[in-house]
Amino acid sequence: MSSTQHDSAQQWTERYTHAVMNTFGPPQTVLVRGEGCYVWDADGKRYLDLLAGIAVNALGHAHPALVEAVSTQMSTLGHVSNFFATEPQVGLAEKLLELVGQQGRVFFANSGAEANEAALKATRRTGRTKIVATHGSFHGRTMGSLALTSKEAYRAPFEPLPGDVLWAPYGDAEALEAIVDDTVAAVVIEPIQGEAGVIVPPDDYLAKVREITQRHGALMWIDEVQSGMGRVGEWFAYSASGVVPDLLTLAKGLGGGVPIGACIGIDEAAMLLQPGNHGTTFGGNPVATAAALAVIDTIERDELLAHVVEIGQRFRDGLGDHPRVTDITGRGLFLGVVLSDPVAAEVMKAALPAGLIVNAPTPDRLRIVPPLILTADQADDAVAILRELLDTVPAAPAGTSS
Ligand SMILES: *Cc1c(COP(=O)(O)O)cnc(C)c1O
Question: Does residue 291 contact residue 260 with C-beta atoms inside 8 Å?
């Protein structure tokens, strides 16, 4: 039993079911290695990775810059505590504020949910408790971030959840206007909803949310955990809107696969959390912050923002005219492929034996969130496989719908 090196993917999956808590359902396969935009399973099969650990592996797998940064930092100073500061922690906070282009302060956490938890606690320091969240939202699975997440199946088993949460339809500024008053602490918005299937709001939505929140003295909190750090071809998905939020949360792509989250308080919101109000043992860890600095440095040095726009367009051009594709939503390499029938899960399953990892967040949508370093040739390969799958996956049985 202890000689495990040569177990097959199926044997590892069997062992998984006996040892790992069953919160995620059965794994699709067992991965052992990655390089660039490819991963390999325990049977030696190679996959082109259009999921990237759910929009996490911005530089793909085993990127030399990330390996070097993490190895060097780990062999220099791997962890301290927040009784001490470290150089990469300070450097990353300064760099993030530079990318945001505003005065502010950063709180480092270890995940998206924790970044949001910090932001939620910051909103309580306004003296108000009401938060407006949107239908279709996903902000994480801790009790606080779950309270702002709309999906009933995620929420129901854990109620009562904390807080005074009000719900507004996503993308609808008029509806928001009717809900926000002078007792609301904050409105929390994903600039593009990821888990809901890559849903893009109207162009002027964020500007209107900013105007409404400003008028009522409420904070505008933008959750860029999935959309941020270059995924849309700009540093943040809200950048194009011209708004300045009060709170901005980041995670997923930030560390390129090393767990890290960040809650950025801008201007006055930077001072909401005061000594003793919040904390974390690992948050801002030197290895994680060194990793994030390497990710940002590589995106800048290799001009990946422009590359992301170009490769995203290649997917649009390659898939947009397929008869089973009714729309392609999103920006850059944060794309939703909307299908004419609810076969996204079937396409996802059939993609695996075809050597492609792609995700199906809803019954009729595929999500494409590959490493930002995906090459034009790799995008073309992925498009060819997806077209073949869309040609061959049987239609959903009558009566089913998304
Ligand atoms: C994934 C996600 C989260 C939660 O991040 P975790 O690291 O899984 O806790 C929060 N907000 C958004 C928009 C996300 O996509």
Answer: yes
Tell me the per-residue pLDDT of 160-210, one tens digit each, with 9 for 90 and over.
999 899 999 999 999 999 999 999 999 999 999 999 999 999 999 999 999
Q: Are strands 130-134 and 104-109 parallel, antiparallel or unpaired?
A: unpaired
Q: In what side-by-side order are the strands of the sheet with 261-266?
A: 104-109, 261-266, 247-250, 219-223, 184-189, 130-134, 164-168
- Ligand 1 centroid vs 191 CA: distance in angstroms? 13
Read off the pLDDT of residues 146-172 as tens digits, 9 standing for 90 and up: 999 999 999 999 999 998 999 999 999
12 CA to middle of ligand 1, Å?
27
Distance from the alpha carbon of residue 252 to the mean position of ligand 1, in angstroms: 7
DSSP for 353-371 reads: TTTEE-EEEETTEEEE---
CATH number of 9-62+303-392: 3.90.1150.10
Mutate to test the pocket of ligand 1, among 199, 225, 263, 282 (most ligand atoms within 8 A of CB): 225
Ligand 1 pocket, 226 CB below 6 A?
yes
- The rounded Cα 266 to chain-centroid distance in angstroms is 21
Q: Is the CB of 139 under 6 A from ligand 1?
A: yes
46-49 vs 356-357, strand pairing mode: parallel
Q: Whose CA is nearest to atom 15 of ligand 1?
A: 226
Which atom from ligand 1 is nearest to the alpha carbon of 190? Answer: 13
Task: Specify the DSSP element, H or E, that contains 325.
Answer: strand 325-331
Domain boundaries, the chain: 9-62+303-392, 77-301
* Residue to substitute in 117, 143, 200, 226 for testing ligand 1 pocket (most ligand atoms within 8 angstroms of CB): 226
| Ligand 1, atom 5: closest residue by C-alpha | 112
- The CATH code that applies to domain 77-301 is 3.40.640.10
- Quote the pTM value: 0.97
DSSP H/E element including 394: none
